[in-house]
Design goal:
The chain is of the alpha+beta class and 547 residues long. Helix content is 48%, strand content 18%. It is built from 20 helices and 18 strands. The longest helix has 22 residues.
């Protein structure tokens, strides 16, 4: 019976929850009954979790304090809209509890849900029942009951989700606007999808990304709302406050106090709605709908400096929403070429939509790449060939695909990973192209394999079976053991700018051997972080990345 999990399993739960939410964000968006998407509830929550996922993926340890810190900081920095900010506060509360334990049990999770509920309610100036707040409260209450039973974690999370689902069904009775539209609360559904992603890991169903929901609501016979009384999405007059304003207040002045932050929150409540002011004297996250964004900024500048400023015209958002709904496509998609189940999992964890199996000896055709792009429901698709021999085929795929393909000329796996990490779903096509191409120059790549025949290349007389190390251009090391050659390769590639060494070991290398090599490198290069990842690639003992 699995009654506890460690940091490694928790990492998988966070990443899988984010992927499941991203896969179903369109459904959550459809439940949004207000005339302005404000980014849309599903998109807001997905972007918040995407930011948390990036921080988790970049975290080099499975220690709970570091992992929880990555989740909390990533969610706060990436929080979008009301739903995203509230989700970030739920996660902040949960992480404050989970970070204190190395082994997570049902009781630990129950305490974390209680903390998440408390902080989320405090974050909202005028909490409304029938929203994501009501659902997290029901989840917390269900968790407390389930934790008293001697059950496995998978059964605990199933019970928690059931409690949330039961409350979600009741949300239309709490909010007239939901009842009128005939749907349940969008934020509550998004939260339950996230938790289902957690549960799927415990059930061993990591690849299960297809869920079905019945989120409609049928009013009773004596209800004042009939089937024709749906909310009018096109009624722009419903929007009282036209500008959604979001930003961080950073480098707060020494004279600024907690009382000043509270007073700032009260000022915003007098000139707008959907006010969220969260944080402390180190950083404050602000979200408000108002008709005077300039006044909002003036108030904020009395406390400190402004960062990541965003002002959106929600009237225009509503007009744009109609076009997006007609297209049925998300703005961007990602397609990557790689070989090895470990590398495939890493790219999927980074939310790459489609993986094409291929590499040095398995070059996919232009048609293979075009079909992989067509399978992604996105208007613009970025392709990462990850091999110089595949770049041409990727460019040829542009003429075969019904998507708009943009090829990032990655010539190896480390460049591909670096480019994917530079992707920003909120940026433009041109902005992403620049950032991802710029990222290619910041990584040095090498590989360790074996000679397939005897020959002489440069200064090396090679015999069939010799272990060889190659940088991006030449063979730079050879020897009788994988460990010896791997260390030689790193030595040849190293320079004073390198701060991180990443080793991706293939399917012919044992994890113990990879860790032993990493240990030697840690002793040799004490100023560098050394990470080891399972790549599972064929033919190559190691793919080496230096950044």
């Amino acid at each position: 019976m699995q009654k506890s999990i460690n940091g490694a399993m928790f990492r998988k739960m966070i990443l899988n929850g984010a992927k499941l939410l991203d896969a179903h964000k369109a459904h959550v968006n459809e439940l949004n009954v207000f005339p302005v998407p404000d980014g849309d509830t599903g998109t807001n929550m997905s972007m918040t979790m995407l930011s948390a996922s990036r921080e988790v993926s970049a975290c080099s340890t499975n220690n709970m304090p570091e992992l929880c810190d990555a989740v909390a900081k990533g969610a706060l920095r990436g929080a979008r809209g009301n739903s995203g900010v509230i989700l970030s506060q739920i996660l902040k509360g949960m992480m404050s509890v989970l970070s204190q334990s190395s082994e997570l049990t049902a009781k630990t999770f129950a305490k974390s849900f209680a903390a998440g509920t408390e902080i989320a309610y405090k974050a909202v100036t005028k909490p409304k029942e029938g929203t994501i707040l009501t659902v997290i409260r029901a989840i917390s209450e269900g968790a407390e009951k389930a934790a008293k039973k001697n059950i496995e974690l998978k059964d605990f999370f199933a019970a928690v989700i059931d409690a949330g689902e039961e409350m979600l069904k009741q949300t239309p009775e709490m909010l007239p606007v939901l009842k009128k539209a005939g749907v349940v609360d969008a934020g509550g559904r998004g939260l339950l999808i996230l938790l289902q992603g957690f549960l799927n890991i415990l059930l061993g169903q990591e690849e299960e990304y297809s869920l079905e929901f019945d989120d409609s609501y049928k009013a009773s016979a004596d209800s004042p709302y009939d089937e024709q009384a749906h909310f009018n999405y096109n009624d722009l007059a419903e929007i009282e406050f036209a500008y959604c304003t979001e930003f961080f207040i950073v480098n707060l002045y020494k004279k600024t106090t907690e009382a000043d932050i509270d007073l700032f929150r009260e000022k915003l409540m007098n000139i707008g709605d959907c006010v969220l002011v969260i944080g402390d004297l180190s950083m404050v996250k602000v979200h408000v709908h108002s008709n005077a964004p300039g006044q909002v900024l003036t108030y904020a500048l009395e406390l400190g400096e402004l960062d990541h400023l965003k002002i959106e015209n929600m009237l225009q958002q509503n007009r744009d929403l109609k076009n997006k709904q007609q297209e049925g496509l998300k703005p961007f998609g990602l397609v990557s070429v790689c070989a090895g189940d470990g590398l495939t999992a890493i790219f999927k964890d980074l939310l790459v939509d489609n993986i094409i199996e291929g590499g040095q000896t398995m070059n996919p055709s232009a048609d293979d790449i075009a079909k992989a792009c067509d399978a992604v429901a996105a208007k613009d698709v970025f392709v990462f060939p990850n091999n110089k021999n595949i770049v041409l085929a990727a460019n040829q795929a542009k003429a075969l695909s019904k998507r708009t393909i943009h090829v990032i000329p990655t010539s190896n796996i480390p460049q591909g990973l670096s480019a994917v990490l530079a992707f920003n779903p909120e940026d433009t096509v041109d902005g992403n192209l620049k950032n991802m191409n710029d990222a290619l120059g910041g990584v040095r790549s090498g590989s360790v394999t074996y000679a397939v025949r005897s020959t002489t290349i440069g200064n090396f007389d090679l015999k069939e079976g010799d272990i060889i190390g190659m940088d991006a251009k030449d063979i730079v090391a050879k020897g009788d053991s994988v460990g010896e050659v791997t260390e030689q390769l790193v030595d040849k590639m190293m320079n004073d700018d390198i701060s991180c060494i990443s080793l991706y070991f293939g399917n012919d290398v044992k994890e113990e051997e990879a860790n032993a090599i990493a240990s030697d490198l840690i002793k040799k290069y004490r100023s560098c972080d050394v990470d080891v990842h399972y790549g599972g690639q064929p033919l190559y003992y190691f793919i080496v990345s230096l950044e």
